[in-house]
Amino acid sequence: MTSPIDIEGSGTSVADGEPGPKTKSGNGELVGRSPGQLMWLRFRRDRTGVITAVVVIAYFVIALLAPLLVKLSGTDPYTLYGQDPTYADTPVLDDFGLPLGYLGGVSGSHWFGVEPQYGRDLFAMLVYGMRTSLFMSLGITVLVMTTGVIIGLIGGYFGGRTDYWIGRVTDFFLSFPSQLFFIAFMPVVTSFFVDPREETPTYFRALAMLIVLWLLGWMGMARLVRSTVLSLREREFVEAARVSGASPWRIVRKEILPNVVTPILVQFTYQLPSTILTIAFLSFAGVGFVEPTPDWGRLFAVGARYAEQDPAFMFFPGLALVIFILCFNLLGDSVRDAFDPKSGR
User: Fold this and answer.
1) pTM of the model as a whole
2) How far apart are CA 299 and CA 280, in angstroms?
3) pLDDT tens digits, one per residue of 234-266
4) Per-residue DSSP letters for 114-125?
């Protein structure tokens, strides 16, 4: 049986085409590659991962540049083009309040059509809705992941009573059905802090969603990290660091944390789209973002009301959401395969 031959200076194995562990530096010396470099090389070879990464980055760029894109289109997500007398010369709705033209009123002025009854521009509502959903879910996901990692590290490394009580607290929070709890939680909180005669501010709704989804979302990450740390804390390199007199903080930071980066990153790529869907569901149910705040979930709620009269209204928001969720999930698979040296991809 012929052993794999590493082409000098290329770092590529002739036998399987996988990146080798070493490469030649400028002075001709062989330099070992770090795990991060090997992961990046494997990821670059995965066309699906690269394409989905580009699509995901494009979504965040579009969300970040939403004000500029809306300005270029000459519209905004709040103007009622079907009711504002200023735009009476260019009607967008018929006598029944339905969009004029094809595919929900698509035209040079309204690229994705308009909303029935009010005539708001769908393109402006969509890009601003992406901005709301993406950055809201990003903030929640970062808080959830950070909390889960910290609690999982503490429970897994110290064990004993610490792990026991952390486990019981985790079980307590897991007993709450997060979405149903949030639906019941919002009216109660609103009645405490907002006068019933006044409309709930958008920032308050965003803050309430962030707090509840954060408090009820960290448990899965904590359990994943805890199980990984339990398998690492008795390993030889951790014992060697402990015998050498290293502090628990240094052992966790230098020895254990780098070895749990892989499950953390993979879990992040699955957690973020799940959070987006949760926020969309809450807005669809009427306890998340409401009129006139643009949001993906609210667009589906509006589209459901006009599904029979104007089914085209849900086409662009639905297509945008499906593409993003699909690409992010495929990106998560590619990241997992890139970190797995045994993967055949």
Assistant:
1) 0.82
2) 9
3) 888 888 888 888 888 888 888 888 888 888 888
4) B-TTT--BHHHH
Element (DSSP H or E) covering residue 22:
strand 22-24
* H or E element, residue 31: strand 30-32
Dihedral sign, CA of 303, 312, 71, 134? positive
pLDDT digits (tens, 9 = 90+) for 270-301: 889 889 988 888 888 888 888 888 888 888 88
Give 324: exposed, middle or buried? Use CB within 10 Å, 0-12, 13-18, 19+.
buried
DSSP, residue by residue, 245-265 = T--HHHIIIIIIGGGGHHHHH
Q: Cα–Cα distance between 145 and 305 in angstroms, integer?
A: 36
Can you list the alpha helix ranges (DSSP code H) found in 46-92? 47-64, 66-73
Alpha helices in 96-201 (DSSP H): 122-158, 160-174, 178-193
What residue type is 169 in one-letter code?
Answer: V
Asked if residues 228 and 267 have their Cβ atoms less than 8 Å apart, the reply is: no
3-class SS at 20?
Answer: coil
Q: Both tokens of residue 207? A: 């803050």
Residues 6+ apart with CB under 8 A from 71: none
Q: Which amino acid is located at 226 in the chain?
A: R
How many C-beta atoms surround the C-beta of residue 80 within 10 A?
17
Q: Which residue has the tokens 């979405």?
A: 179
Residue the block writes with tokens 């799940």: 274
Query: Do residues 98 and 310 make contact, with C-beta atoms less than 8 angstroms apart?
Result: yes
* Alpha-carbon distances, residue 133 vs 11, 60, 253 (angstroms): 42, 10, 33
Beta bridge partners of 242: none
Measured at the CA of 107, the angle between CA 95 and CA 289, to 5 degrees, comes to 75
Tell me if residue 41 falls in helix, strand or coil. helix
262: number of Cβ within 10 Å: 17
The DSSP call for residue 321 is: H
Do the Cβ atoms of 295 and 126 come closer than 8 Å? no
Place of tokens 């969309």: 280
